[in-house]
Amino acid sequence: MPEPVLPSTARTLLARTARAQRDGRVPGLVAGVVRDGGLVWSAGRGEVPGPVTDVQYRLGSISKTVTAVAVLRLRDEGRLGLDDPLERHVPGTPFGDRTVGQLLSHLAGASAESPGGWWERVPGGSLEELRLREEHVVLGAARRFHYSNLGFGLLGELVARHRGRPWDDVVRDEVLLPLGMTRTTPRPEQPAAQGAAVHPWADVVLAEPEHHAGVMAAAGQLWAPLADLARFAVFLLGDTGDVLSPASLEEMAVPAGVDSSAPGWSAYGLGLQVLRVEGRTYTGHGGSMPGFLAGVFVDREEGTGAVTLANTTSGLLPLWSALLADLRAAEPRVVEEWRPSPAAVDLDLLGVWFWGPAPYLLRAVGGGMLDLAPMPGRPGRASRFAPREDGTWLGLDGYHAGETLRIAPDHLDLGTFVFTRTPYDPEAPVPGGVDERGWQ
């Protein structure tokens, strides 16, 4: 069992949560933090109709991440590819040429909402009843990020057709129950909070409707208590069990369409939001439905996560990042000890290499990997590399992700870039050759 937070930390987190509930005028708010594989602190403020960790709230778009896990399971089984056109799996829509991966990362150019009544407030029907037309294709494929609830409705239909069962049943049996999320359901089961809107100019509330969204359920249908959402945070931190491979979870968290080396950004992977906030990277998802706001985000470097659930349509500022910052300040993580380990290559291959006149450092790092990065204080592109069986190295991140590094005694060959031991070494195979007059 994970150790609970210190009493002083618990008070700090409670004070943070209490202020958020009061200032946001939230009828009921529950929050928790995750560390070492479990929920280590939780609290509720306002009207919470039952045990803090067991009251269901609507998750909204966190349901998208659950849907994405179900899609990745199909991919890992070889039933589909992320580059497959939708037409191959769900024929007859105007998005037939858009790929599964584009839908997962909101790059398919699908309209933000489904046609007809506002799907979040009126009961939904089948895909056929949506009567999708070309006008619901609002952008070209892979042109820009455009958040699309409709896109995830289509992915839910894809899951249902492959499994021959409704989306609700598939995610229950393949994702939720295997993770121990036994109280996560498509419709509320008591104890459950009543969704509410708070009047902007008075302290009065209005009940919000609840229904099944039909084919759009995959975009925002699920309800869950704090304990279940905390278990999902543990999943996002890497405890995937038999639900998904760690490699596929890692793939979900890779940002699409942004330069992840930039100092601050917000992006989307495969069903996961990826945020860079004050030098830290968070993965997870927020959620909103009429009457509810939710969030589950983790800091994978710290091994911590925060979960929040509230029954209000709007007004609550993001709380999860502040809780994680409070936890980090109050109980800083004690990192693992450094210990010597064998270098992944001969030591004489490590050290300074030059890309043209620019100096880079090639270092052996933990886990049998290599790191190639500019000399400290200099601009440039950094990437890590993992060994392949054929002796080459695969780029894992940064500019050279997916590229092949080949190491020779006198040069490095990285995607046609040649690094040499001295700037433009005339004895190495520098592309275009080296002026025979040398340095003047």
Verbal overview:
- The protein is α+β, with helices and mostly antiparallel strands and 440 residues long.
- It folds into two domains: 324 residues, Beta-lactamase (3-Layer(aba) Sandwich), CATH 3.40.710.10; 74 residues.
- Helix content is 22%, strand content 23%.
- The chain has nine helices and 19 strands.
- The protein has an eight-stranded antiparallel barrel. The protein has a seven-stranded antiparallel β-sheet with strand order 2-1-11-10-9-8-7, sandwiched between helices. Strands 3-6 form a two-stranded antiparallel ribbon.
- The radius of gyration is 25 Å and the shape is globular.
- The model has no long low-confidence stretch (mean pLDDT 96).
Short structural description:
This protein is of the alpha+beta class.
Going by CATH, what is the homologous superfamily of the largest domain? DD-peptidase/beta-lactamase superfamily
* Percent range for β-strand residues: 15-25%
Based on the structure given, which CATH architecture of the largest domain is correct? 3-Layer(aba) Sandwich
How large is the count of helical segments? 9
How many domains? 2
Ranges where pLDDT stays below 50 over 5 or more residues in a row are none
Secondary structure category: alpha+beta
Number of strands: 19
Helical coverage, percent range: 10-25%
The radius of gyration is 25 Å
Q: What series of H and E elements makes up the topology?
A: HEEEHHHHHEEEHHEEEEEHEEEEEEEE
The CATH class assignment of the largest domain is: Alpha Beta
Give the overall pLDDT as a whole number.
96
* Major β-sheet profile: 8 strands, antiparallel, barrel
Shape: globular
Compute the separation of the termini in Å.
Answer: 67 Å
How are strands sequenced across the largest beta sheet?
12-13-14-15-16-17-18-19
Named CATH topology of the largest domain: Beta-lactamase
